[in-house]
Amino acid sequence: MKLTREQAAAKIMVALDYPDAQSAERLIAELEGIPCYMKVGMQLFYASGPKFVESLKQKGYYVFLDLKMHDIPNTVKGGAGSVTKLGVDMFNVHAAGGKAMMEAALEGVEAALAGSGLSKPSVIAVTQLTSTSQSTLNDEIGIAGTVEDAVLHYAKLASAAGLTGVVASPVEVEAIKAACGTAFQTVTPGIRPAGAALNDQTRIMTPGEALRQGTDYMVIGRPITAAPSPRASLESIIKELIEA
Ligand code: C5P
Question: Is residue 202 pLDDT above 80, yes or no?
């Protein structure tokens, strides 16, 4: 089934990897009117915080707050409550924090929603960072087996905890959907349109390929933010998704 323009745009999460609100706002002004998701990570959030997130929501954007919470359950519960009150549409926690920690995040969401009129954010788990190599996993972190084994183990744990989905490489989507069901969502960085610079990403797919794998959302940063025309780049990715 073909995606509409709105559906295609809503699958694209533009990574606002900027040091301050002013720099991010220049990009947002260029993309005005395109109904994409905006991803706010720790660099921008630690600098410009809740006010910036609120301004994105006022402009009507979906917001993924990528803060990768990882702490004791009670602290994550509190953090989840605070970001829910900001009105974000999605945020994430590390699956490595364990099932009780992920469940505490959901409890924090529910407690913050009670009587608030806010809509419920999706809670997504980080499995293994894409920067984690086989030797980092085995020799430094001390987890045996392949990176894919570890990703699937964490995806199943996140699913059992009741989370919405996981962040993963597009090459892992098929195995995650097979293990956790097609409704379990995947959010995939490592997306590069044909001909775009790889930068530091290694296991990549084009937007069309990632969509065909079944990815639900794709996080795209530099192919849009560092393009000569970010707007033209985003429009061409939307077109690729509609045609895929
Ligand atoms: O510029 P680029 O498209 O590589 O940006 C990818 C975005 O996705 C960045 O914000 C990066 O922090 C994020 N990300 C990633 N790999 C992960 C998790 C998040 O590249 N495993």
Answer: no
Per-chain mean pLDDT for the chain: 96
Of 15, 173, 162, nearest to 93 by C-alpha is: 162
2, 11, 57, 68: which is the annotated catalytic residue? 68
Greatest extent of the chain over all pairs of C-alpha atoms, in Å: 49
Ligand 1 pocket, 15 CB below 6 A? Answer: yes
Rounded to a whole number of angstroms, the CA Rg of the chain reads: 17
Q: Whose CA is closest to atom 2 on ligand 1?
A: 221
Q: Which atom of ligand 1 is nearest to the CA of 220?
A: 3
Per residue in 223-238, pLDDT (tens digit) is 999 999 999 999 999 9
Higher pLDDT: 1 or 71? It is 71
- Rounded distance, CA 235 to CA 60, Å? 19
Tokens standing for residue 199: 């930068």
Give, using CA atoms, the residue closest to atom 19 of ligand 1.
Answer: 189
Best probe residue, ligand 1, of 219, 225, 233 (max atoms within 8 Å of C-beta): 219
pTM: 0.95
- Cα 105 to averaged position of ligand 1 atoms, centre (Å): 23
- Contacts of residue 171, Cβ cutoff 8 Å, sequence gap at least 6: 203, 205, 213
68 catalytic? Reply is: yes
User: According to DSSP H, which parts of 142-221 are helical?
Assistant: 147-161, 173-180, 207-213
Measured CA to CA, the distance from residue 144 to residue 59 in angstroms comes to 46
Residue pair 192/182 in contact by the 8 Å Cβ criterion? no
